[in-house]
Amino acid sequence: MRTDLINGKAVKNVIMFAVPIMGSSLLQYCYGFVDNIIVGRFVGTNALAAVGNVGSINGFIIGAALGLTAGFTIPVAQKFGAEDYKGMNKFAGNSISLAFVIGVFIAIIAHIVCYPLLRLINTPDEIIDLSASYVNVLYYCVPIQMSLNNFNALSRAVGQSKKPLYFLVCSVCVNIILDLLFVGKFGWGVVGAAWATAISQLTATLLSGIYILRFNKELNISKSDIRLSGSVSLKQIKIGFPLSLQFTITSVGSMVLQTAVNGFGPNVIAGFTAANRVEQVLNIPMSGLGVATMTFVAQNYGAKNYRRIITNVRNIYILDLCVSVICSLILYFAGPFAVSLFMTEQNPEIMYAAKHYLTAIAQCYSLVATLFVFRNTLQGLGFTYANTVAGAGEFIGRIVVALVLTPLIGFSAICYAGPFAWLLADIPLIVIYLVKRKQFSKLISQQEE
Fold it and tell me: Which one of 238, 263, 405, 430 is CB 3.0 to 4.6 Å from 413, fit for a cystine?
């Protein structure tokens, strides 16, 4: 069933649209979350540190890839709002082929640069081979991940957010079963966890692809639409590239920060990894509202409902701030318990690092709400360059902390790297949005004359 984001009560419909997205995000995080728990409990601290250590590199490579697909489907939502269905299907079909082709290219590059990047971020010798073996399996799946992300984004672009959730439920069930089988029973370690993730993602991709191409009633993609078009591809890359660049820039900052974390040894790496996983789960409600806001804004921008955009972005922002307060309380009081799930025995050094990090994040969560709302609003309008500007702010924040503050005040600086990066990203996003809102006010005046 499609959620109508162009008519009716906007905030209510955005929430209804966002809930399945939150569920999908939770299930996607379950891939890494389950890997971390099973690896940490069945293999050991070094294995957990090895899996966590590749997070910044994955953000650099896979994040850049997925940023492109997020941009590919923005014109689909805008064309849907404008009721230009022929144009919508052409953009949708082209995105399917373009995502897979670029995914293959990125997978090849990823395998080439993997080991040098692990050395670059100062990965400890005792875990570097484990990290490399884990991440190299995942890189075979970059085309699959890009296709899955693209199929899900196509569903959401036309107001359907429930189907991706159903497919991911099947995928995560496969992941859990295979993790227990490959790691727990067969003893394949981190490689087994990676193959479990790869097979489960392939499952979700096949289900999503079949639905989009054969059963989605809003899209009617023909063989000619799937054939790559140079002009359409150029438009989609032009929108997607700034999003990809944003992921790349912020990931470089995260890699530099990970280098600083790695200097504290495997126990701190493991604590930082476990706490970071818990934080990612608590990000999901705000992130889900952000993605829903992007689709809401894109569809209404195509329909030229400028007043509806201005009024309801403000209301969604207030809602997201309230959500951030609740998430902060959960993170502060329940976060340490969640971290303990990653270990069979309490390790004081791991728990200290994790608690310190979670406390710092919980104090500043409103900055995340601001980031998600305004970044996704501008993304829905097609002003994706704003994401690059925000990404540069995050990059500067993490670089300053890693290179300047960590040597001076130690691990405490790393704990506040995220909030400092969010603040530097929020400032330009708010300024750009206020400029665009002023332009919309003029367009509204012209419509009402």
Answer: 405
pLDDT for residue 90 is more than 70: yes
Mean pLDDT of 273-297: 90
**What is the helix (H) or strand (E) element at residue 35, kind and residue range?**
helix 10-42
Contact 95, 150 (CB under 8 A): yes
CA–CA distance, 148 with 141 (Å, rounded to integer): 10
What pTM, to 2 d.p., does this model score?
0.84
Determine the average pLDDT of the residues in 397-413.
88
Classify residue 410 by its DSSP letter: T
The DSSP result for 83-105, as a single string, is T-HHHHHHHHHHHHHHHHHHHHH
Find where tokens 């980031």 sit: 371
As given in the structure block, the two tokens for residue 246 are 């944003």
Question: Rounded mean pLDDT of 81-96?
Answer: 95
With beta carbons less than 8 A apart as the criterion, state whether 296 and 380 touch.
yes
Alpha helices for 180-229 (secondary structure H): 189-210, 223-226
Return the closest-CA partner of residue 353 out of 391, 300, 395, 410: 410
pLDDT recorded at residue 32: 65
Q: What is the pLDDT of residues 333-374, one digit of tens each?
A: 988 888 887 666 678 888 888 899 999 999 999 999 999 999
SS3 64: helix
Query: What is the Cα Rg of the chain in Å?
Result: 21
415 vs 276: CA distance, rounded Å: 10
**Sign of the C-alpha dihedral computed for residues 117, 27, 242 and 86 taken in this order:** positive
| Token pair of 432 as six digits | 């750009």
| Cα–Cα distance measured from residue 260 to residue 122, given in angstroms and rounded to the nearest whole number | 8
Burial of 444 (0-12, 13-18, 19+ CB in 10 A): middle
Q: What angle do CA 153, 159, 163 make, to 5 degrees?
A: 65
**In this structure, are residues 389 and 427 in contact, taking their beta carbons and an 8 Å threshold?**
no
pLDDT at 433: 93
The tens digit of pLDDT for each residue in 317-340 reads 999 999 999 999 999 998 888 888
